[in-house]
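Revision sheet: structure tokens.
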Amino acid sequence: MSLRRYAFALTAAAALLTVPSGQAKARVGDDASCQPLAESLVRELVEQHLTRIPPQPIADEDDAADKSSLEVVTRASTDRPSSPPPMPDPAPEAEPTAGGRAESAPRRATRRPRAPIAEKAKADSRGPANYSKTNTQEAEVDEGDIVKTDGRFVYHLSSNYRGPHPGPRNELRIYASWPIRSARLLARYALPGDVAPQGVEQLYLFDGHVAIIGRATHGYGARTMDEVGGAAATRVLPARTQLTRVVVLDVADKTRPVLVRQIDVEGQIVDTRMIGQRLYLATSSDGVRLPMGLVQDVALTTYRIARHDVDAIVADLASRWDLRTVDLGLPRYREVSQQARSRPLYTCEDLVYDANERAPQLLNLAHIDLAQRAPIEGAGMNGYSGASRVYASEGAFYVANAHTPRVPNGQTESIVKKFEFGRAGKPRFVAKGYVRGHLLNQFSMSEYGGFLRVATSDNWRESQVHVLQTEGDKLEPVGQISGIAPGERIYAVRMMGAKGYVVTFRRTDPLYTLDLSNPRAPRVVGELKIEGWSSYLHPLDEDHLLTVGQDADARGRSTGFHLQIFDVSDPRNPRRTHHEKLDAGSMSSAQSDHHAFMFEPHTKTLAIPWKGSNYWGLVAYHVDAKRGFTSLGRVNHALMYKQFFRRHCRGSESSECGRRNYWWKFFTAQDLDVDRVVAIDGHLFSLSRSGLLVHSVGRRLRQRRAVLVNEPEWRPAEPNLTLGAAW
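Predicted:
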């Protein structure tokens, strides 16, 4: 193959492997902090080319002419800016109560509980005395969820696929919840159409406003972040680029939410936290990358200089490219509501780049002050992957990445990076450290007394708990528990203050109690082995744990959802005091999402979404540490459709009304999935795509209100009275 054809082939391959990032010399500003990283990336790319291609012989005059013409053609093409191309039988029913329905057209305008402990309010006519809050890991750190309440109103993010609005749409539903007898739908706010179907992720309440976080895409074809607002393009994004959108609504008038702020951030949402009115948004995006024109020039220059001299090749490239200002693809954001141009979320000074990290993506952490329109500040790191885990305390944000072990010995390893929140709220990288094993979820990390505790499993070998302390720019290990449950791995973990609990599983479910009071000498103090496993551990009180999970047989095979109460008053001798097993094959979303777990301590009511073999709804229990579980009943949102059917069939002679189960045609199983349950003054509010059901809590649940939002487009057909039809 001639040198000319070979270089063209490599250039084409480089173009396919590199995401276009706009003009060849697009600037990121006057800051030169990206120069060392750009030089490092260029050098790495040159070395990759040289390792794949043997040294070329000295070219003759014909080859030199070929190379010269090739360089002219390619440089001419890469100097041109890129341009986008054109573009089941329900529970026993109660008498229906008509729920209010309000349709509100959206218009534009130019602390503290360890959840779900109820928030106490002044018990007067202005609101309820108690209501549940989002179940969070840390008392001072709020977490985004799809349902929030302030006691008087309930806010629900839903993906609606039925009803009078054709096609899928994501919407915010606002219900009046107080007084109970007046519970009704007040408004439905449709999110912008480019928010992905089922792309509404989280919401927060603050100071008469609602902040909604969702996933949006640019759609097919290359577009720019600024193109949406009509401004000049600053960067061409690849097709189907993922954005994270923050929508802020003024809900002073609950019937007419007003859009006051919209922010688009490049990258896919990972998680969020809110401390006070400071929102911390974590996203993942493509890794740092050189502009396509520079990538092509690297390939050409590598073969034009006919020797393996990396320094000479890099120097030649640096003479033609200003490596201080090339766009490395760091994420940008845009205040859409201000019609502003996009800005960098952070610069290379705020990027923690480790060349040893093999995962390709960036983890971006943005600080958004929701109380004022200050510029958004952020920081980032490379090495993020789907196996990474994040956790936030009141003063810091931690990211744990599954990492290639520094010394390959068959063990797994994670690298933990710490970002601190400055006085103004801006995240700043401060330290990193290494731990053996991989993490299960956010509960695998916990900060207490200036120390970070990390629970990990090394595949199925064993599990351990590491204690790390920040010393300079390192997270240094100061204490460790090793050898926990050989041959098993962690299924649930909870660390609260000086106490810790770990559940492992393979065929049995050992519960380990940990003494973490001395960070330099943590230890296992007790163990209990039973069948099955727990997926989530919740503090019932100081001496008892309430858990959800799956029961199992002696071989470790799941036999159905179960609830357990453990007495841990004597950590050396933990005991399971109560066990409630449900139907075989049943499950609850609370097993994998702790936000779906609702325990209201004032009435000692547990309510969680639950699915059986032929049942979609929720189960509710009165939970007492001494008496155990007392069933309050089950709730199935299919009941709202049955009541709708009966209401419209009163006095009708339609043949449809004579079919006993005709109302089953009005819904799908997904319409009956209960998203969340909230408790307000002795009442349970359960929310699904279909609507809202309100039940009072007594010895049994009793329906008080029903608000069917997704009403079927159905009315009884007139009876056919043609000859012979009625006989």
